[in-house]
Amino acid sequence: MERSETGTITRRQLLAGGLTGTAVIVVASCGPDANNAIPKGEIFVARVKKVPRLDPSTRDWEYGPQATIEMGSQEMALPTKKVPTVTQLTVRAVHDGTSIGIRIEWDDAETNDLTVRVDDFRDACAVLLAAGAGDASVRAMGTPASPATLLHWKADWERDVQLGVQGISDVYPNLSVDTYPPLIVDNPTEITPMDYVKAGATDWLPGLAVGNPLSAPTRPTSVEKLVAIGFGTSTSCKTQDAIGAGQRTKKGWRVAIVKPMTASDESETVLHAGGTATCAFAVWSGKDKDNGGHKSPSVNTFRMRLEA
Amino acid sequence: MVEVMNWQLNRMMAYPYEEARPIRQAAAVFDTNKCIGCQTCTMACKTCWTSGHGQEYMLWNNVETKPWGSYPLAWDVRELELLGPQHWNGDTYGGKTIFEAAPQGKKNIGWQPTGLDYAYPNRGEDEVNVTLTVKRYHLKLPHDMWFFYLPRICNHCTYPACLQACTRQSIYKRQEDGIVLIDQERCRGYRICMEACPYKKIFYNHTTRVSEKCVMCFPAVEDGIQPRCMRNCIGKIRSFGFVGTPQTARPDNPIDFLVHVRKVALPLYPQFGLEPNVYYIPPVHVESDEFLTMLFGPGARAAINTYQNAMEGNDPELLGALLLAVSTDKIISRFKVESDSVIGWADNGDEVVRIPLKVPIIERSAFDENLKVYRYNIT
Questions:
Q1: Whose CA is closest to A157, among B211, B189, B194?
Q2: Cβ-based contacts of B118 with chain A (< 8 Å)
């Protein structure tokens, strides 16, 4: 594969090997040249006309070369997860100068997309973005000197987006309730959190009353944007401008995450066409009760290189 | 892990954070001998704090029948089984706490309840300790069959398992009164706290998808008013106030007096190692010292003896301290037995209650001469 003088790969150079973008992708992702084209430890973000947004299965994602990510144990913070449930991800990334899109796929035989019951835990994945060019120190959720931006896709939020915010009546269809004060209605099992909002009665839903994003009465997207400066510090951003979508495949999940390359919140990572960044990945498996630090993180951080 | 002093175990123990006791610690004493299992406390709490969407199976306050009752299902049996052998060398605990027994990669032992575990809050209600099929029982004193009610709220522990387990520092212990709270904005519903709390007093809200717990009615406590479950107790079993350590205990503080001076009120499952701050006067009719020691530690039999001595009229000061329970809405910080009354004072020095130690009884004749009828009640 041809390389530029600076060592960066341009879309023109990638296209030099084939007639169509798709054909090139086959070479880049599967062919023997792929490893030469994309150095190990690097996520190459190909420049495209427009980043695909809410369709994880469109072939437009294939403009981004495929990278295989090895997942490992989480042994830095208690409780640890010594054996990763998901051992491998495949990732493709593209940008259009204003937005970056990352598609993540992994095998997971069981769908866990509810967090309503006390023993429901979700499937999820996240991308960590930070400054630098593969800075290993940010792997543990960033550092005070190099904050991490986290794009967290949640399977339960995806279900909320598709079917409406799920509640206790959805999982316990035979539920019987006398009344939910102060909302006095004929059929209280049909009450939703939005009814509390309309009635100005969110004091009865404390998480919602204080604006916890997990407790939101509506769900516009399945991706949450957070920033962190170390373990236990992740904080939801005021501006939620990341979007995404997840689909079940025959083998597991296929998730697309898109966000603006600019920063709209304090400590958020800024990305530039032609520049580099640091990225890492993590996956949560609901059937293994993964949550928080109990997850399968990527073994390494990666240099993310954005095509000029 | 660092070494901290747990006076209930009479020894140092391992805990992830340094010993940092609050300025004063909110605490309660529950007299199991007076509890009638009416669940008024449960309803007082439920109607105030947990009547919302998503809180359907949530009882911050519950009353279970011992030995068979439990909510969530078998909470204590499962924890004790995980903890392994427990033994006391005199007043000193010789076994491991839930922190010391933690396997590698975890901060504590614990188990995660499922939805079904919350489905039977009255399991075992009013069931006695032995099966009644062997022979016919007649009333016998002391009892050879027994049960008692165990009212439970969050213990607002000195060394909370929930707090140390939370990876996001969403749980905090207030410096001013030791009340343990979950930051509803910061909680992400991981439920690690729920697994860690051996008393299983952390609950998951199905709708807001974050965890919640007893807040000890902190807005009331800040105003010098007792929590709702205490104020509404029909059996007058509950005393609320602030507890010190054995070194800082004040004999004129009713809670300190019951816990540290007379030692009639004991922590629940002290061997877990959390230094819980709800104390129980053990049931006098339970003959099994092994069972009482398992629940309340090695001081249970002595506590019963001291309690019975007061009931027989030999300890007016202890009787006075016990009479203060649910005698006023105000938090009593100082008390004194004077002539035939007990007097309670609030923090600001106001006298908030004065109760005679012995209620004057007037006995009337069974027949009312004026109305020419027999009376149903002659006292």
A1: B189
A2: 118
How close, in Å, is residue B205 to chain A by CA atoms?
Answer: 8
Q: Which two tokens stand for residue B67?
A: 């030995």
* Best CA proximity match to A234, nearest among A185, A181, A191, A292: A292
Render pLDDT for B183-238 as a digit per residue (tens, 0 to 9): 999 999 999 999 999 999 999 999 999 999 999 999 999 999 999 999 999 999 99
Cβ–Cβ gap B115/A167 under 8 Å:
no
List all residues 6 or more positions away from A40 whose beta carbon is below 8 Å from its beta carbon: none
Model pLDDT for residues A113-126, shown as the tens digit of each residue: 999 999 999 999 99
Q: Which of B150, B330, B89, B351 is nearest to B223 (CA)?
A: B330
The reported pLDDT for the residue numbered B140 is 65
- How far is residue B293 from each of residues A248, B24, B31, B271, measured CA to CA in Å? 54, 28, 16, 10
Task: Using pLDDT thresholds of 50, 70 and 90, give the confidence band for residue A25.
Answer: very low
What tokens were used for B289? 């010292």
pLDDT band at B360 (very low <50, low <70, confident <90, very high): confident
CA B173 from chain centre, in angstroms, equals 18
Q: Decide if A182 touches B, using CB distance below 8 A.
A: no
Structure tokens at A157: 């939020």
CA–CA min distance A163, chain B (Å):
15
Structural domains in chain A, CATH included, are 11-164+219-306 (2.60.40.1190)
The confidence score (pLDDT) of residue A11 equals 41
Judge: B194–A212 Cβ closer than 8 Å, yes or no: no
CB contact under 8 A, A206 and B212: yes
Chain B residues within 8 A of A209 when measuring between CB atoms: 184
Give DSSP secondary structure letters for chain A.
----TTS---HHHHHTT-SSHHHHHHHHHHSTTHHHHS-TTEEEEEE-SS---S-TT-GGGGGSPPEEEEB--B-SSSSPB-S-S--EEEEEEEE-SSEEEEEEEEE-SS------STT----EEEEEEESSSS-GGGGTT--SSS-EEEEEEEHHHHHHHHH-S--HHHH-TT---S-BTTB--S-GGG--HHHHHHTT-GGGSHHHHTT-GGG-SS-S-SEEEEEESSTT--EE-SS---EEEEEE-SSEEEEEEEEESS--STTPPP--TT-EEEEEEEEE-GGGT-BTTBSEEBSS-EEEEE--
Q: Give the residue on A whose Cα is nearest the Cα of B203.
A: A118
Question: Quick one: how many helices (H) and strands (E) in chain B?
Answer: 10, 19
What is the C-alpha to C-alpha distance for residues B27 and B157, in angstroms, rounded to an integer? Answer: 9
Domain, as residue range, for B141? 34-234
The pTM for the full model equals: 0.92
The domain total for chain B is: 1
Write the CA distances from B361 to A87, B235, B356, B364, B379, integer angstroms. 79, 20, 12, 10, 6
Q: What is the pLDDT of residues A247-300, one digit of tens each?
A: 999 999 999 999 999 999 999 999 999 999 999 999 999 999 999 999 999 999
Which CATH number fits the domain that encloses residue B38?
Answer: 3.30.70.20
Interface probe with B: pick from A117, A118, A160, most Cβ of B within 10 Å: A118
Edge-to-edge strand ranges of the sheet holding B334-338: B334-338, B341-345, B351-356
Question: For residue A40, how many other CB atoms are within 10 A of its CB?
Answer: 9
Cα–Cα dist B110/B117, whole Å? 15
